Amino acid sequence: MSKFLNYAVVVFILLSGRVQAQQDSIRMLLDGATRARMIADTEENYRILHQTELRTDLGSYPLERSKLFSELSKHFLTTDDFDRAKLYVDSNLTLSKNSGNSIALAHAYIGASTYYNYLDIGNLAVQYAQRAIDIVNRYPDDALAARAYYILYGVYSGWDDLLLTSKYAKLAIENSERAKDF
Predict the structure, then answer these.
(1) Which residue, 115, 131, 142, 149, could crosslink 109 as a Cys pair with Cβ 3.0–4.6 Å?
(2) Backbone angles phi, psi at 55, to 5 degrees
(3) How many Å apart are CA 169 and CA 159, to the nearest integer?
(4) What end-to-end distance do the CA atoms of the chain give, in Å?
């Protein structure tokens, strides 16, 4: 029995390492897509995002899938394909809710908030950003909180609400500094 237990432990460790490597691979692809987006290389951004989307193991990683769908939505917003952007927002919300992963759902809410903010539908941008903040208040994620507060800052500054603009600018900066995400 001892040999079987040892074998089982070794197999578990090897499989765990493989799962972590697959998840890290997805994260590296997402980081590459983000870098391409930041230098306005939309072709490379989409190439990497599409490559990631085609992975057959994506459903096993709800957080990474949520990040991917948010990035795909942003890509299609910047290329003025609003229908496809909305498709990714809606899919992300549904899949993330069904996954039971709260942080994945917070990312989906940020994706929805970004979509509505981009289209200048401030009330819905605020609604989804607040939902993300509700989650990060229970499951702290400073980088995600910074993004939500930044969206709120942008919406309220557009509405000329000086008090809330100042509040959310301060919170965005504080969370961004804690996350070291500038």
Answers:
(1) 131
(2) -65, 135
(3) 14
(4) 54
What pTM does this model have? 0.85
Q: CA 54 from chain center: how many Å?
A: 18
Cα separations (Å) of 98 from 34, 66, 70, 73, 136? 26, 12, 16, 19, 18
118 vs 1, residue with greater confidence:
118
Q: Which long-range contacts (CB under 8 A, 24 or more apart) does 39-48 make?
A: 42/75, 42/78, 42/79, 45/71, 45/75, 46/75
Nearest to 55 by CA among 102, 5, 21: 21
DSSP assignment letter at 182: -
Q: Which residues contact 102 (CB under 8 A, 6 or more apart)?
A: 135, 138, 139
Per residue in 1-57, pLDDT (tens digit) is 456 555 544 444 444 555 466 677 888 988 898 898 889 999 999 999 999 999 989
Q: Note the pLDDT tens digit of each residue in 85-115.
A: 999 999 999 999 999 999 999 999 999 999 9
d(CA 135, CA 127): 13
Tokens for 164, please give them. 């809330």
Q: Which of helix, strand or coil describes residue 177?
A: helix
Report yes or no: 111 and 126 within 8 Å, Cβ to Cβ.
no
